UniProtKB/TrEMBL annotation:
Gene3D superfamilies: Neutral Protease Domain 2 (1.10.390.10). This is M1 family peptidase. It comes from the Bacteria. InterPro entries: Peptidase_M4/M1_CTD_sf (IPR027268).
Length: 710
């Protein structure tokens, strides 16, 4: 595939190293073989090529919901040039005021983040670096907006270093910071005594080198905090000490080091985790005693799994633990061994739902339910969110793609692998609420990809699947990242076969774990594993780097006997002239005589051959299609359609009578806008409606969810 020209980076003027532009995603050029230090084979001393080291001490004031922190950040210059300017993310400033990029997008696009309730006086959140020093010398700070956001956005800060960092060398920044947590919004913040502390500390951006994710020269990848964007950071080590009131329970990324230290009614917890790119924690005095379990798998250390939950959601703790253990088994088997020693699951309390459904390394939040009847829609929701958030530990965590620029590599691929797990495990759920189940009304479903079609914008797609998180038409465009990617990958799996697709994903994981792959790297992994370059490039060009509606339909089907000709014809050597009615009567007589003489004849047999005509229409992009015509005796005939013409007609004569025709009989194209028009029967078509009744079931689920959330 010819490489597209790289988008121009944003000029900086500091040390000649530019900032990546807002359109730097949807990478077409594969990364170099030695990108990010080369593949991690397991023979290296560390899991990742560690670039950063964070040592943080933080104190929580549980009354004012503020943080007082000290951070020692050590960063390694991987480039071949001196670096005198670095960039840090201050994500909490997205909630500082309505001048942030986050709130501008919330207002301009009408997007929902944290609900429509106006932010109260105590609802804002922010972070200030009160001191930044390099080797004891003060560092100058200035805010920048790399994506062209409002000048009032303060989520990216530029630091002009007194001492440049030489190639291959490290520098240490000593940072004092003060932060106000927001009332829970966008999966961080506080509610009552509950605190989810995510994206809470000054965090250095990523310096990408030539040959990494489409970069042609060193560039800083530092985007503003957009309303629909998540994160991207270097791998490294975290050593974090959390100081909280002694009546609070704490959970965090990583492994607790020794016994907590208590003094003056406060307790310090120290957590350490190497080879990750983020750190989050939670604290609440209402947490019940954790529910704990373990998991062991080939190639992995023994994993300690714990669930932190409030008393009102005790019923959710066991199912969340079981789903996490099941996900550990599936992801380790189908992608690669889980490399860490812990997983912490947090169930937020009642009224803190905005904190649910968020992922961090070795740590995620699920959702809470007071009752979780087995096999119910509630059980299905809790099962899925637990699997989904754990799955991010692979696609967001270990593979560590750029969630700003290429969210399909995390949200989309993770959604696909989660649904694949549910499908392969033959999980069966009831979509109706438990109160209907109790009176004997059920609506079971087993194919989760039918639901994904509902969110995949199959009828009117607005954005390429590979577009950035924020450059989309509206909220549904970002939502389609999940469902459209999952549906696209499901279609690709149907084309390639399940074993081939799973082998390709395992190779992708093995090659790119701890290395920040791009969309182009995913594409090339799929090609290398399957050998199907033409197919995979067609899919990526059509639906990842661009977007096209698919809409093929079976427009008409006829199958009629080839009866004697009316008019002037020659029969048995002499000319005969017959009218149309006379000819029709002659055909009827021959048919009646034949039926009498052949009482045991097979369906569709008779004295005449049959002319079958099938017409198909194309109202969208071209995809390879298969048409299968079924005859009265049960036999079939196959036709292939692989051109860009808007319609196609086949007409043929056969001794068999056609009774039905079906486009896409293997269901390879779930992205098609309307699967109900893929089939026809000559005596009325009920089969297609039966096949796609699951769409109606999924719609009922969506309606049910809407009613529950009113």
């Amino acid at each position: 595939m010819p490489a597209a020209s790289a988008p121009p980076p944003v000029a900086d003027g500091g040390d000649g190293i530019a900032l990546a532009g807002a359109d730097a995603g949807a990478v077409r050029t594969p990364s170099a073989a030695d990108a990010w230090g080369g593949p991690r084979t397991g023979r290296e001393a560390t899991l990742s090529d560690r670039v950063v080291d964070y040592r943080i001490q933080v104190r929580l004031d549980a009354i004012t919901h503020t943080l007082d922190g000290r951070e020692r950040l050590t960063w390694r210059n991987r480039s071949a040039v001196p670096v005198s300017v670095v960039y840090l993310h201050l994500y909490l400033n997205a909630f500082r005021n309505t001048g942030s990029t986050f709130f501008h997008e919330k207002h301009d696009l009408g997007l929902d983040a944290g609900g429509d309730t106006p932010v109260r006086r105590d609802g804002w959140g922010w972070i200030d670096m009160t001191s930044v020093r390099q080797a004891g010398r003060a560092v100058r700070q200035s805010f920048v907006q790399p994506d062209g956001g409002p000048a009032t956005d303060m989520t990216v800060v530029r630091l002009d270093l007194p001492q440049p960092v030489a190639p291959g060398q490290r520098t240490t920044l000593d940072i004092d910071f003060a932060a106000q947590l927001p009332r829970v919004i966008a999966r961080t913040g506080w509610f009552g005594s509950f605190h989810l502390v995510g994206q809470w500390f000054p965090k250095i951006a990523v310096l990408e080198l030539p040959g990494e994710r489409g970069a042609t020269a060193p560039r800083w990848n530092a985007h503003e905090f957009h309303i629909d964007s998540e994160f991207y950071a270097d791998f490294g080590n975290y050593d974090v000490t959390v100081d909280v009131p002694s009546d609070y329970r704490v959970g965090a990324t990583g492994v607790l080091q020794g016994a907590p230290e208590t003094f003056h009614q406060r307790t310090r917890y120290r957590y350490v985790q190497d080879d990750v790119h983020d750190f989050a924690w939670t604290a609440d005095k209402r947490f019940a005693a954790p529910l704990r379990g373990t998991w062991a798998g080939t190639g992995s250390p023994e994993v300690a799994v714990q669930v932190l939950y409030p008393p009102e959601y005790v019923a959710s703790a066991g199912p969340a633990l079981k789903a996490t253990q099941d996900a550990l088994t599936y992801f380790s088997r189908t992608l690669g061994p889980y490399p860490y020693r812990s997983v912490t699951v947090v169930i937020p309390p009642y009224n803190a739902g905005e904190a649910g459904g968020m992922e961090y390394p070795t740590f995620f939040t699920a959702e809470g339910y007071a009752k979780v009847p087995p096999g119910s829609s509630t059980a299905a929701a809790l099962d899925f969110v637990s699997i989904h958030e754990f799955g991010h530990g692979y696609f967001y965590g270990i593979l560590a793609s750029n969630e700003f620029e290429e969210p399909m590599l995390d949200e989309g691929l993770n959604e696909f692998w989660d649904q694949r797990m549910l499908r392969d495990g033959h999980r069966r759920y009831d979509l109706l609420p438990p109160w209907l189940n109790r009176v004997g009304v059920h609506l079971p479903v087993t194919d989760p990809f039918v639901f994904e079609r509902l969110g995949a914008q199959v009828d009117d797609p607005s954005d390429p699947t590979g577009a950035s998180a924020w450059n989309r038409l509206d909220a549904s465009g970002y939502g389609s990242v999940y469902s459209r990617t999952a549906t696209l990958m499901r279609d690709l799996e149907t084309e390639l076969g399940r074993p081939a697709l799973e082998r390709a994903f395992k190779d992708y994981y093995t090659t790119w774990k701890f290395r920040h792959p791009s969309i182009a790297d995913l594409r090339e992994s799929l090609v290398a594993s399957t050998g199907q370059r033409a197919l995979i490039e067609r899919v990526f060009d059509q639906q990842v780097y661009a977007v096209h509606k698919l809409d093929d339909s079976l427009a008409d089907l006829t199958s009629e006997p080839v009866t004697p000709l009316a008019g002037r014809v020659v029969e048995a050597g002499r000319a005969v002239t017959r009218g149309e009615e006379e000819t029709e009567a002659l055909a009827d007589a021959r048919t009646a005589a034949w039926d009498k003489a052949h009482p045991q004849a097979a369906p569709g047999a008779g004295p005449f051959a049959w002319r079958t005509t099938v017409t198909v229409r194309r109202r969208g992009a071209a995809v390879p299609q298969t048409l299968v015509v079924t005859f009265a005796d049960g036999s079939t005939r196959r036709f292939d359609w692989d051109d860009a013409l808007p319609w196609k007609r086949w007409s043929f004569i056969d001794q068999r009578r056609a009774v039905s025709a079906q486009l896409d009989p293997q269901q390879r194209h779930f992205l098609d806008a309307n699967k109900l028009d893929d089939g026809r029967r000559i005596e009325g078509d009920h089969a297609a409606a039966r096949r796609w009744s699951a769409d109606i079931l999924a719609l009922l689920q969506a309606l049910q969810t809407a009613l529950v959330n009113l």
